[in-house]
């Protein structure tokens, strides 16, 4: 796409009113969009009303949302004019719930829709297909779904539009995102917080977001808060957030067209002046970016009344304002016909059903059309990351467990250099809710700063107008920014405390669904994966206690399609490096990486780690005693602390019962446990049985909730012999080892589990079990007296 050139900040004359001809053409375009929107909700035939409207022309099931649609059509029409007038590079985000008819209508009128769906042609047959498919079995949904060209935001779930908009413009200096925010959507926590994103925008390096608050007064059946506070209170609120609001209010079309055109001229000039001052004169003083408040009736231009009850301008216009069916009042059919004819379709479409050329000329051309802008199909713009050799950051491991290191501290050095290598132009960012330092990724600040455009005081660290790290104490904003960044063709990483990533459960849902659907759309291109690094984990939250202990995000993730989700639990730093490199190279997945941040034993040298991670699961011969024979028991582990405790349990058994044949299996890629028929990473039955056997007890120490492993392995041959230890919702402020004891996942319980399931051990097993029980009593007494774990726990090392 060609980029626009900024004009110098010259004094501009007051906006010239639209000519009568311009108003006529703009109004015609808007009427066409409204006509197409009503047609989508109601019609399956007779798309141009060439014959009297009959019930046979109306869908049997009427689904859709009208209330927000005419206002959005109005906005889209006027943005088209601004794009042409100022050569803007702009995309459109539809935030209000279920505003799909407007975005579909806009992209159809500009021609993009027919280009990506040739069967929805620019003629009467195409119009019939366009109308029929909407909210129809096998068709398209009522919001701006992935099937809609130009969309990077569905609007089905409310609250994320403004966050996505800012994510899209970071490091995207020529892009303007017009973000339409529903006044119902504005009541959500994520959207209310997202107004603060203007404190993180660099006008020299980033693009611009133009929020348009669509103040039409109602939600499904309630008034909206922002519509019922005084105009002065609303203005103070928006200015308090740091915006300069411009107002367009009314219902008379001609006056509204003039007002909207004039405001857009002022707003575009304001944006261009801010960017000129930053880019040409180096003025990075935080600006007050402009925004628009559009106050128009809900269901504008729709039925004024239905059955004698007001409709336009009320909550009753929110969805389908007029019931039309064999069981509805017969007058409704005539009222629908009158409504459709009020847009005068014969003036808008020619004999073939194509938009008349003088009206169509209002739309931009080529990739300047909002539906055809490559930023809304980010895979078209995606470039591979420049990645250093992750092996260069390896921890030297002369023998298993011989050294300790912080896993995330090690990978932080790798991420530091990823930021350096992708800084010009920036193509990679790290996002997090004020936890990058806490999560031991502080090495990234050797390469970059936190981007921050608010005040800076003397003792602040790593704050600057430009930086590759974005932090705000809102998981919603970090997730939304990252999603917008990815959807427009860039790469990133979200680091977060494990327990609190649940805050974005629903946002993850929506993004995973987007990825799944776009895989099925040929013209959509794959984007970079959404990568989570979850740390400060359940097993090392001893000082924060129960509130910070929840490993359940991975349970939630695994509900999504196998074609989309991946979950990794590397046992040490070298494995984390290998996994991180793999995830940053991947496309169109959600990758969840769970890793520890505290110093911990390191198990594998880099070559072994690379091989182990490539396989995703493996037998560790150096920790096993079965020597290629059939084992008496399998000790399996997944996660860093479970690996430590399984190896410690193995060492106890090796010392006291040297004749016992133990096999140790470590899992990095959690979905290896699933059947190969259910997940592309899953093991075949033969491979699974080769590792875990078909008839021997398996004691499995797992990072998360134990029933997740049972869920993944329920159909395996030895499922009845599988005994899983994991987090079972027991926690408090205690020592690190006591956290494992509270959940029966410590080395002593794990060793006893083996003794309970290998009956041939006889008296030897009984004496060892009593010894282990005594150790648990000794542990409890010690921590209560000393406030730390026993020396044999703190100083334990693996011995071959």
TrEMBL record:
Keywords: Lyase, Thiamine pyrophosphate. It is an enzyme of class 4 (lyase). Its cofactor is thiamine diphosphate. Its EC number is 4.1.2.-. One of its GO terms (molecular function) is fructose-6-phosphate phosphoketolase activity. It comes from the Bacteria. Residues 597-798 form the Xylulose 5-phosphate/Fructose 6-phosphate phosphoketolase C-terminal domain. InterPro entries: Phosphoketolase, THDP-binding, Transketo_C/PFOR_II, Xul5P/Fru6P_PKetolase, Xul5P/Fru6P_PKetolase_C, Xul5P/Fru6P_PKetolase_CS, Xul5P/Fru6P_PKetolase_N, Xul5P/Fru6P_PKetolase_ThDP_BS. SUPFAM superfamilies: Thiamin diphosphate-binding fold (THDP-binding) (SSF52518). Residues 19-380 form the Xylulose 5-phosphate/Fructose 6-phosphate phosphoketolase N-terminal domain. Belongs to the XFP family. NCBIfam families: PRK05261.1-1, PRK05261.1-2, PRK05261.1-4, PRK05261.1-6. This is Probable phosphoketolase.
């Amino acid at each position: 796409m060609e980029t626009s050139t900024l004009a110098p900040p010259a004094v501009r004359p007051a906006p010239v009113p639209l000519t009568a001809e311009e108003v006529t053409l703009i109004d015609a375009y808007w009427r066409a969009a409204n006509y197409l929107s009503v047609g989508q909700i109601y019609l399956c035939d007779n798309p141009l009303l060439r014959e009297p409207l009959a019930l046979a022309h109306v869908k049997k099931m009427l689904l859709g949302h009208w209330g927000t649609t005419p206002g959005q059509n109005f906005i889209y029409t006027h943005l088209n004019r601004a794009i042409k007038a100022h050569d803007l590079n702009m995309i459109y985000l539809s935030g209000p719930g279920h505003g799909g008819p407007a975005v579909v209508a806009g992209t159809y009128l500009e021609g993009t829709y027919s280009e990506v769906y040739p069967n929805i042609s620019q003629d009467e047959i195409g119009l019939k297909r366009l109308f029929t498919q909407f909210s129809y079995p096998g068709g398209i949904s009522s919001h701006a779904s992935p099937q809609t060209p130009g969309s990077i935001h569905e609007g089905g779930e409310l609250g994320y539009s403004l966050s996505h908009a800012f994510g899209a413009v970071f490091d995207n200096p020529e892009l303007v995102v017009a973000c339409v925010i529903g006044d119902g959507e504005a009541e959500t926590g994520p959207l209310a917080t997202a107004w603060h994103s203007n404190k993180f925008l660099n006008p020299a390096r980033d693009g611009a977001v133009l929020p348009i608050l669509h103040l039409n007064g109602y939600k499904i059946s309630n008034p909206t808060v922002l519509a019922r506070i005084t105009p002065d209170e609303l203005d103070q609120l928006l200015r308090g957030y740091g915006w300069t609001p411009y107002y367009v209010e009314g219902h008379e079309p001609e006056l509204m067209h003039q007002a909207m055109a004039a405001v857009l001229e002022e707003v575009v000039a304001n944006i261009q002046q801010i960017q000129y001052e930053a880019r040409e004169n180096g003025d990075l003083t935080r600006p007050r970016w402009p925004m628009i408040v559009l106050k128009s009736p809900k269901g504008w231009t729709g039925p004024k009344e239905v059955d004698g009850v007001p409709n336009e301008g009320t909550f009753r216009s929110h969805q389908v304002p007029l019931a039309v069916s064999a069981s509805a009042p017969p007058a409704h059919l005539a009222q629908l016909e009158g409504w459709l004819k009020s847009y005068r379709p014969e003036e808008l479409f020619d004999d073939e059903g194509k938009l008349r050329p003088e009206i169509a000329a209002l739309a931009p051309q080529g990739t300047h059309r909002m539906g055809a802008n490559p930023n809304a199909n980010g895979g078209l713009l995606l470039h591979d990351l420049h990645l250093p050799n992750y092996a260069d950051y390896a921890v030297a491991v002369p023998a298993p467990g011989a050294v300790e290191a912080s896993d995330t501290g090690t990978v932080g050095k790798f991420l530091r250099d990823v930021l350096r290598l992708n800084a010009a132009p920036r193509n990679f960012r790290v996002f997090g809710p004020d936890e990058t330092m806490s999560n031991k990724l502080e090495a990234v600040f050797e390469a970059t700063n936190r981007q921050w455009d608010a005040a800076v005081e003397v003792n602040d660290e790593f704050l600057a107008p430009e930086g590759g790290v974005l932090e705000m104490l809102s998981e919603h904003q970090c997730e939304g920014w990252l999603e917008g960044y990815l959807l427009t063709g860039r790469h990133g990483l979200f680091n977060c405390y494990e327990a609190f990533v649940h805050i974005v459960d629903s946002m993850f849902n929506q993004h995973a669904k987007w990825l799944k659907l776009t895989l099925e759309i040929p013209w959509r291109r794959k984007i970079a994966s959404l990568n989570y690094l979850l740390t400060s984990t359940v097993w090392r939250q001893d000082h924060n206690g129960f509130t910070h202990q929840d490993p359940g995000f991975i349970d939630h993730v695994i509900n999504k399609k196998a074609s989309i989700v991946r979950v990794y639990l590397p046992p040490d730093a070298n494995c984390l490096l290998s996994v991180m490199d793999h995830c940053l190279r991947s496309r169109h997945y959600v990758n969840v990486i769970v890793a520890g941040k505290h110093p911990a034993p390191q198990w594998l040298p880099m070559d072994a780690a690379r091989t182990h991670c490539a396989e995703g699961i493996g037998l560790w011969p150096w920790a096993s005693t079965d020597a290629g024979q059939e084992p008496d028991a399998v000790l399996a582990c997944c996660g860093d602390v479970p690996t430590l405790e399984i190896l410690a349990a193995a060492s106890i058994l090796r010392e006291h019962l040297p004749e016992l044949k133990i096999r140790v299996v470590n899992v990095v890629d959690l979905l290896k446990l699933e059947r190969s028929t259910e997940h592309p990473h899953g093991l075949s039955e033969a491979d699974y049985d080769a590792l875990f056997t078909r008839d021997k007890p398996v004691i499995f120490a797992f990072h998360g909730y134990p029933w997740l492993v049972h869920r993944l392995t329920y159909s395996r041959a030895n499922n009845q012999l599988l005994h899983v230890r994991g987090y079972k919702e027991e926690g408090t402020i205690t020592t690190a080892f006591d956290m494992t004891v509270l959940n029966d996942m410590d080395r002593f319980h794990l060793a006893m589990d083996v003794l309970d399931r290998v009956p041939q051990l006889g008296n030897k097993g009984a004496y060892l079990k009593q010894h282990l029980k005594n150790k648990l009593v000794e542990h409890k007494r010690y921590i209560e007296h000393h406030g730390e774990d026993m020396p044999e726990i703190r100083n334990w090392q693996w011995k071959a």
